[in-house]
């Protein structure tokens, strides 16, 4: 049943020319150099320090590792991070 739902979502996205992240609830990540990071479609902050950020996703987690990390803005599904970003990992 789950694969049928996924196929319908993909078909709908292609038919209506919608971005995959909108239909499938995937995170959208925008990075400016290694100093700014904007993440959409997250499910909450799991851990935050000046060297690590872990965000919950619909499926898995996103880990950001860096230096002097700060959360500049946070909304229910969006977060804006600044600092020296060294690594971004997806954890299933």
Give the SSE layout.
Blueprint: H1 2-16, H2 20-24, E1 28-32, E2 36-40, E3 45-48, E4 52-56, E5 61-74, E6 78-91
Antiparallel strand pairs: 1-2, 2-6, 3-4, 4-5, 5-6
Organism: Paenibacillus thalictri
Protein name: Sporulation protein YqfC
InterPro entries: Spore_YabP/YqfC, Spore_YqfC, YabP_sf
Short description:
By secondary structure, the protein is α+β, with helices and mostly antiparallel strands. The protein has helices spanning 2-16, 20-24, and strands at 28-32, 36-40, 45-48, 52-56, 61-74, 78-91.
Summarize this structure as a short list of keywords or feature phrases:
Spore_YqfC, YabP_sf, elongated, 92 residues, Spore_YabP/YqfC, six-stranded antiparallel sheet, alpha+beta, Immunoglobulin-like, Sporulation protein YqfC, 2 helices
Explain what this protein looks like in three dimensions:
The chain has 2 helices and 6 strands. It has 92 residues and is an alpha+beta fold. The protein is elongated and about 45 Å long. 14% of the residues are buried. The mean pLDDT is 86.
